[in-house]
Structures are given as C-alpha cells and as structure tokens.
Write a structure and sequence with these properties.
Shape: elongated
InterPro entries: AsmA, AsmA-related
Radius of gyration: 47 Å
Structural class: mainly beta
Protein name: AsmA domain-containing protein
Number of strands: 45
C-alpha cells in the first residue's frame, strides 16, 4: 500500500512539473498580438464596424489572467467615422470562477474614453446595434425523425443578461467587480431635437456591475454645449440597475446636481432627487419622492434677471402604451423676471389624478400664469369632472379665464370653457362646444362684450389639429378657422372672414398715456409698473407678449373682410394673403376699395427687429377724404394715382419713428383745387413784387383762397426724417409751378423746409408803364420758400432775370423810381434849407392870419397819385395774415408758396 502511495505521489509531482514547465513555455512563447486581427475581423463580421487596435496587447497569467491594451477605436456601422475610442484599458479576470462557468472581472480601468452618441431624425441611436442579440440559428432537423414525431428538445439561450455575446450554456454570468473611467468625454448630438452637447473631463466610478442587478454609480464632469449653450459642472450618483436587452433601467436614491450656464439660465442651485424606473421600449416612467429645484439668474445677453422653479411628485406613474397616468400631490411652480422689470409666475397642480384603461377620476387639475410689468397678463386653467376610461375619457369642463393689458387705456378680459372628450390610446382630443366671452374695457369704463363659440379637435398620432371660432363684433359676424400640423414645429393654416369690423374698438392706439391697471385672472388689481419704467431708454426693439407669440408662428392664411372701419376710414372688400415665418409676417395681394378708388400692395413685418416695409398702389382715389383719413387738413381736392413705398426701421423706445423711416411716393393728382392762396394777383403785375435786394417777405396764407389745377406730379423720397422733392410740378391755367429737382427738402423732425422753384406762366403777361403796354409771351419767376409752416418767408430771385424782357422792364422801372425819389429828396432838402433863412430875418414876424410857421416835418404826405410807380394800387401794402396754427405736418409746403405775394414791395 505504501509503495502504491509513493508511486502516486511521485506521479503527481511529475505531472505538476510538466504542467509548470508547460505553463512557463506557453507564457514565454504565447503572443496575444497575433490575435489582434482575429478580434478585429470578428467585430467586423458581427457588428459591421471597424475596430482598430494600434497598441500592443499585454497578457499576464499569474496571479490572475490580466490584459492591457492601448489605442483602441471603434467606428460607426458601415462607416469610417469614429464611434468610440480608448487611450488605454486594463482588466484582470479571476481564474477559479471560470471553473464554475462565471467570468469575474476583478477591476476595469479605462483612461481617455471618448464616445460620440448620435440620435438621427427618426429617433434612432447609433449604438442600438451593439445592444441587439444575434438571431437564433436555424434549427437543423434530424432526418431520422418525421415532422409529426417528437424530437429531442434543443438548447436555447433564453436567459441572457449581458450586452456581450453569451456562451451556449445559460448559467454563464459576467461580473465586473468595479469600473473606473478617467479623463473621459461623451459627445451627444440629437438631430431630432436639434441638440449638440458634450460631457468633458468625465469620471465614472462604479461598484460591482452585473446586468439586471443594482450597483452604485458616481459620474462627474463638465457639461458644455452649443445648442443649447452650456458651461456647467455635473455630479450624478445613485444605485443603478441596467438591462439593455429589455431596455429597462432604474435608479434608486438618485441625485443629480448641476451648477453653471445651461441655455438662458446661469444655475446657482440645480438638483433632482428621487427613485425612477424607465421602460424606454414602452416609453413608461415610474417615480416616487421626486423633487426638482432650479434657482439661478439669467445668462449674459439673455435679458433674464432671475429664475426659480420647483417640481414635486410624491408618486408619478406614466405608461404611454397602456395608457396610464397616476399622480399624487403633483405640483409645478416657478417665477422669473427680466431686465425690463417684467415678472412671470406659473403654477400647475393636482391633489390626485388616476387615469387607466379600467377607470378615470381624481381631483381637478388647475394652473395659472401671471405676467406683471409694462404688460399685465393673468390666466387661470381648470380641468374638472374627470370620468370614463383612458380610451374614452370625459371631462365635464375645461375652463380658461384671464385678462391682458398693455401700456394703454385698453384691457382685454376673456372667459372660455368647453366640455372635452379624449381617447388617450389613439391620442385624440375634442372640444366640441367652446363658448365664452371676450370683454374689451378702457379707462373711461366703457366695455364691449364679444360672444365667442367654436370647436377644437386634435389627433396627436397624426400631428394635426383643426379649429373653428365664430364671434359677433359690432353686430357683425367674425369667423376664424384652420388647422395646425407638425406639433414639434407647428405649421398653421387659417382663414379669417368678417362682415363688418370696427378696428377702433379692437386695437389700442399707440400713445404715451400711462397704463390702466388691468385686473388679473383672479379679479385682483395688479401692482403698477415701476416708476419711470415707461421712460427707460433701451436700444432693443420694443417687444411684448403678442409680438413674441406672433413671432413664433409659422404658417399661412387668407383674410376676406367685407368692411373694415379704422380711425373713421371705411375699407370695403378687403382681401389679403398672410404668410408667417418665424419673426416675419408677409402680407401679399392686399386689395381694397377705399376713397372712391382702389388700393393694392404688399407688406413685410419683421417682428423681431420691429421693421416694417410696405408697398401700396393707389388708383383713382379722392384726395380730400384721403387727407381726412390721414388726420390732415383737407387743403386739396382731386383724384390721384400714385405708388407708396414705406419702410420703418428698428425704432428705439422713446425715439421718433420718422428718424428711422425711409420711403418714396410717386404719382399724379388731377382736376382739383388747392386751398390757401390765389395766383391771380402775382401775375396781374409781376413787377410789383420786385425789389433790388431780394428781401424775403412774410408768407401770405388765406384758407378762403383757392387755386384750381389740372395736374400735380411728384416724386418724393423720405430719408432720416427729411422729405426730398426729387420732382414736383403743379399745372394750373395761368401758371406752372416747378420745384428745383433734388434741392427742395422738408425736415419732418423740426418742420423746417427749403423749397426753391419757379413760376412759369402759361398765358401772356401785360406790363404797363408810362402809358406803354409790354406783352410778354412767357414769364419764368424763380422763387424760394423757407421757414416753418407757422413762420414762412417768400422771395423772388430777381437776379436770375437780368437778361430777360421782364428783367429789363424791372430795371427801367427801378431807374425811374430812383430818379423820382432823388428829385423828391432834393426838393425836400431845398425846402428844409429855406425855412431857417426866413426865420433869421428880424422883421419877419408871423402875421396873425398865417398862423404858426410850418416846418418840413409838418408838411402833408404826398397824395396817392405821387406814390412810386412800382407800388401796389393805392399804395396799399398786401396784408400777411397769420398762417394756420396746425398745418399738416406731412403735407409739402411748396403748394401754398405758389401764389403768395411778397408783403410790401421795397423801394430803392
């Protein structure tokens, strides 16, 4: 017995010696790099991805099987684009667990991990193929068995808990004792939601990792991004459970902290805590003890001052496939303010809500929105009377009520409600009986109630909704209907129609009047805007809630209005096509009957920068009602056809819009009259208005006087508050009035104008002197009108007429007037010298009959017949009545200048 035991021991020693020598030989001769290409080919065949191992594989056998590798990269499927790369990685495998069919990785250390995660336009990720399991191989049928006979059961891989290819035995397990990632980076691009972000400096530490078993995770890094802009630190930890095959993920004691800039907010405190379970395949979420808090200030350049928001959900269960929605004491609330002293508040809560395929009920879901500042807005939301099931949900009432007011004397209150039917399985919502009132109020306590009825239907699976609303405004019917498609980027189509609408009772007039405080949705008076807020200068465009909402619209529509009244002007048969592209409103094919004529045109409104461009063509419109409609004095009659182009640039708050506007006006007006002057006197005797120094005389303006005309042609240009006359001509029976091209200008900012031009007679002019008559076939008088409408000066430029017949005639008249005046002056001097000589004679005493001696100063003035030949009849000086105190600011002042004579002709 002892001999056999001795022989066995010697045999075992020999075997161990051979094993040791064999292992030593294997370790010294085995080269793992020989398998690099084999590994790369397996990955290529299995996943259609290219793996490149640039560094050497290093293998160790004792005391553990260890492997380290450097410079590994993996491409996108069927592409050379890199999906992930690693600078270096090492891990060790325990030997004894392999004997029990378990792969236990003692520790994994990875450095320089970089991964590019991409979600395409259809919502698919670029790593989903790595999580999929290989399809089961086709079963080989043993030919010894017939199809209807019982065959031996085949071995299946029903149980698989790893993302790696599994051995055929179902009890094979993979455990990772710990994972450590240093200096990693995760790049994320979501083309579906237009996101582009990255997590740099990423560090990951985990406990024991086994799929379908919870393990501790800690992740830190710096969140950076371009869409949205981000620069923040991130710290995440919790007890995580992963099952990528079934797409089930959970996290207990989850806590995430963010601090820094994310989007428009510089987050000072950002936390999310709670327990979560996510089924990404069914789009289901279960949570408990959820608490989220965000507090911070606005990022630089956003205009946001501060933001505070919180969400609490002790119990939340959502399953989109059931469908199922359960909430207990759910509440969302927040507040914010911006640099324009505008504040915002919002609340949404429900004590209990339970909607499932078997029943529905709960307490009302309520919410509110508040906006305070230059704009006042408040709205309450309430959904109550919930019953039925998730696929046949009934809501007794969905109600909206609130108020809106701006810095004017107008407030809008609304109260709208409707029962609702919903099918959460098919994603259908129907509001079949919308009814309510819109009430317009002003500071004079007047109000107008507008009844509204309508319907709304939405299909969220098809991404389409339709709406229809009818209202009664000023006893006229108003209709608005259309549809919305693509809810992620809504596109609206609509049609507006009306019988008779008075816009004066619907649209606020732009004024500097202080805002009338509007009651908020709860009937409380909102606090007034901060003192001086209205006068606060700013260089940005004036924005408001309405323009912001309009600026987010994309769509098209038509308008067909039988009659519109605005500022007393009636527009008949108004039609237009409207096109909304974000922050731009295009209005094309505008047509309307107005002022006994027609108007057609287009307009473009840039709501982001408050820029407006309008092109209108007026045909055969009556000028007098047009001037009245523009709020101007009706100084002109006639029928006109002209084209108007107007562009209003970004106007800083408080600035004069005229300094930021450009435009042009070109056209003709026919067969009318111009009030304020009469051309007849000036052409009865043009020489009577001559002087040798061209002194300006006061403007003579008389509203009772009228000058008929045949044609007025003009081409005007507006630039930086100045109206330039590129061309201007007024044709009357006696005269043609023309402006000097591109020299006449009217400053709308200070009402100063300079209007050089000329009178050209269309009839012969007869001049009388010393019994002689001189007939001139055509007279051209250059003139200049300057000043303001309240204080204008007019003068004739006689120096330009020296070589003309009229100029020669004026010269001769001036010479004779000068000679007559010289003789009169000599005679007066002689008489003045004779009086002292008589007074020095001692015997020359006054006789009683003669009375007191007469001096030169006591002599009577010459009779009217002795007046200079160039003076007006009877020596009278033409009066200069006061010009009107409120002349039309935007009416060219050249027309009244045409026939205004100088005040009193100067004598040499």
């Amino acid at each position: 017995m002892k001999v056999w035991l001795k022989r066995i021991l010697i045999g075992l020693v020999i075997l161990m010696l051979f094993a040791f020598v064999g292992a030593a030989v294997f370790l010294l001769t085995f080269d793992p790099n020989a398998y690099k290409h084999k590994i790369e080919s397996i990955v290529q065949e299995r996943y259609n991805r290219t793996m490149v191992i640039e560094g050497d594989l290093e293998l160790s056998l004792f005391p553990r099987i260890g492997l380290s590798v450097r410079k590994i990269s993996l491409s996108e499927p069927d592409s050379t684009t890199t999906f992930a790369s690693i600078d270096s990685a090492r891990f060790a495998v325990a030997i004894w667990p392999l004997l029990s069919n378990r792969l236990v990785v003692d520790h994994v250390a990875v450095s320089g991990l970089k991964s590019w995660i991409v979600r395409d336009e259809k919502g698919n990720f670029n790593f989903e193929d790595l999580l999929s399991q290989p399809l089961p191989e086709a079963e080989n049928v043993d030919p010894r068995f017939k199809t209807d006979e019982i065959r031996p059961a085949t071995t299946t891989s029903a149980e698989t808990n790893s993302v790696l290819p599994q051995p055929k035995k179902t009890d094979f397990k993979i455990d990772i004792a710990g994972l450590e990632v240093q200096n990693g980076a995760l790049f994320y691009k979501d083309r579906l939601n237009n996101l582009d972000m990255r997590l740099n400096g990423m560090t990951i530490n985990t406990g024991r990792v086994t799929f379908d078993q919870p393990f501790d995770v800690s992740v830190t890094g710096r969140l950076e991004g371009a869409r949205p802009v981000a620069n923040a630190t991130v710290n995440i930890q919790g007890l995580v459970k992963l099952d990528p095959v079934t797409k089930l993920y959970s996290a207990r004691n989850f806590e995430a902290n963010v601090k820094g800039v994310v989007g428009d907010v510089d987050i000072q405190t950002g936390t999310l805590t709670g327990d979560f379970a996510v089924d990404s395949f069914a789009h289901a979420l279960t949570g408990s003890g959820i608490d989220m808090t965000v507090s911070g200030k606005g990022a630089k350049g956003t205009g946001l001052r501060n933001l505070d928001m919180s969400l609490t959900a002790p119990k939340l269960n959502f399953d989109s496939t059931a469908p199922l929605l359960q909430m207990t004491n759910f509440a969302v609330k927040g507040s914010a303010s911006d640099e324009d002293d505008q504040s915002y508040e919002w609340v949404l809560n429900t004590p209990a809500l339970d909607i499932s395929p078997t029943g529905a009920g709960g307490r009302p879901l309520t919410g509110s929105i508040r906006l305070k500042g230059k704009e006042q807005f408040g709205m309450n939301f309430r959904m109550q009377g919930i019953s039925g099931t998730s696929d046949a949900l009934s809501v007794a009432e969905v109600k909206l009520d609130g108020a809106y007011a701006r810095a004017s004397n107008r407030a809008v209150n609304f109260n709208i409600s409707s029962p609702a039917k919903m099918d959460l399985t098919r994603r259908l919502i129907a509001l079949s009986a919308i009814s309510g009132n819109v009430v317009l109020k002003d500071a004079e306590t007047r109000e107008q109630s507008i009844p509204v009825i309508g319907t709304f239907n939405a299909d969220f699976l098809k991404n389409v909704a339709s709406f229809k609303a009818d209202a009664v405004i000023n006893s006229g019917k108003f209709s608005f209907d259309g549809n919305v498609s693509h809810f992620d980027e809504p596109y609206v189509r609509f049609a507006v129609g009306a019988d008779s609408v008075n816009l004066d009772e619907l649209i606020d007039n732009v004024s500097s009047a202080p805002a009338a405080p509007a009651a908020n949705a709860q009937g409380e008076e909102p606090p007034p805007a901060a003192a001086g807020a209205e006068a606060k200068p700013t260089t940005t465009a004036v924005r408001n809630l309405v323009s912001d909402l309009m600026g987010s619209l994309v769509g098209s529509g038509t308008a067909s209005l039988k009659q519109i009244t605005y500022h007393g002007v009636v527009y008949n048969d108004v039609t237009a096509a409207l096109n909304f592209t974000k922050n731009q409103l295009g209005i094309t094919n505008i047509k309307s009957s107005i002022f006994d004529g027609q108007v057609e045109g287009d307009a473009l409104v840039n709501m982001k920068d408050s820029e407006t461009t309008t092109k209108l063509n007026f045909q055969n419109v009556s000028i007098e009602p047009l001037l009245k409609g523009l709020g101007m004095s009706p100084v002109m009659t006639g029928t006109g056809t002209f084209a108007l182009v107007f562009s209003s640039q970004n106007v800083p708050e408080g600035a004069d819009w005229r300094a930021h506007a450009t435009g042009s006006l070109e056209g003709e007006v026919h067969d009318g009259t111009i009030s304020g002057f009469d051309l007849a006197p000036i052409f009865a005797d043009p020489a009577a208005y001559a002087n040798n120094v061209e002194q300006a005389a006061a403007w003579k303006y008389d509203m009772a006087a009228k000058t008929p005309y045949h044609t007025l042609k003009a081409r005007l240009a507006l630039d930086k508050g100045e109206l330039h006359f590129a061309r201007f001509s007024l044709l009357t029976d006696p005269v043609l009035i023309e402006a000097d091209d591109n020299l006449a200008v009217y400053n709308l900012m200070n009402n100063q104008f300079s209007f050089p031009g000329r009178f050209v007679t269309r009839q012969p002019v007869t001049l009388n002197q010393d019994g002689l008559q001189l007939s001139i076939k055509q007279v051209s008088l250059p003139f200049e009108l300057t000043g303001t409408p309240a204080d204008a000066q007019f003068k004739v430029k006689w120096q330009r007429l020296n070589n003309s017949p009229l100029g020669q005639f004026v010269k001769q008249r001036r010479a004779k007037e000068a000679e007559a005046q010289k003789k009169a002056a000599d005679q007066a001097a002689a008489n003045q010298n004779a009086v002292p000589a008589e007074a020095s004679t001692p015997s020359a005493t006054p006789s009683p009959a003669s009375g007191p001696a007469e001096s030169a100063q006591d002599k009577p003035a010459p009779a009217a017949s002795e007046a200079p030949a160039g003076a007006p009849p009877d020596g009278a000086t033409p009066a200069a009545p006061e010009p009107p105190t409120t002349p039309p600011a935007d009416k060219p002042e050249a027309a009244p200048a045409a026939g205004a004579p100088a005040a009193s002709p100067a004598t040499p």
